[in-house]
Amino acid sequence: MIAFKLNGLEVQAEKGWTILDTCKFFGLEIPTLCYMEGLTPWGGCRLCVVEIGEGPRAKLVSACTYPVEEGLVVRTDTKRVIAARRMMIELMLSTAPMSKEIQDLASKFGVTQQRFPPRNEECVYCGRCIRMCDEQMDARAIGFQYRGYKKKIGTPFDIRSEVCRLCGACMYVCPACAARCGGPNADTDICNACLQVEPTCLEKYGELTCWMYDAGRCGTCVQEKKS
Question: How large is the average pLDDT for residues 35-58?
Answer without folding.
Answer: 94
